[in-house]
Write a structure and sequence with these properties.
Blueprint: H1 3-36, H2 51-81, H3 86-112
Helix pairs in contact: 1-2, 1-3, 2-3
């Protein structure tokens, strides 16, 4: 696999994980908000009241964050082994920013709920 196609595959994987994280973190925050409001009024989430569901979701998010970190590291190595262009450098920086933002959201959510 050449550097360019490797880079594009890694970016595609990063974007998929970022999308999954966005959905999971949103659900996690909604779950936390329902818990702090004293109950689960949403009939679509009957099992979300258990501590096991909460911990399971938290573990899934942590796993996705670790995967995204691994993909970002692979993207860094791929970019470093080629002559990185400004565009590649900017995209890599943006993916790192997204990882940092998701990590901050999880940390904040854990502190609040």
């Amino acid at each position: 696999m050449d550097q360019e196609s490797g880079w594009e595959e890694l970016r595609k994987e990063a974007r998929k994980i970022e999308g999954d994280l966005d959905v999971k973190l949103s659900s996690y925050a909604k779950l936390g908000a329902r818990v702090t409001q004293g109950g689960f009024a949403d009939p679509d989430t009957p099992s979300m009241g258990s501590n096991r569901s909460w911990k399971s979701m938290e573990m899934e998010i942590q796993s996705l964050l670790e995967k995204l970190l691994d993909v970002n590291d692979s993207m860094s190595r791929c970019a470093a082994s080629a002559a990185p262009t400004t565009s590649v450098t900017q995209k890599l920086a943006r993916h790192r920013d997204i990882l940092h933002e998701f990590s901050q959201v999880l940390t904040y959510t854990l502190l609040v709920f």
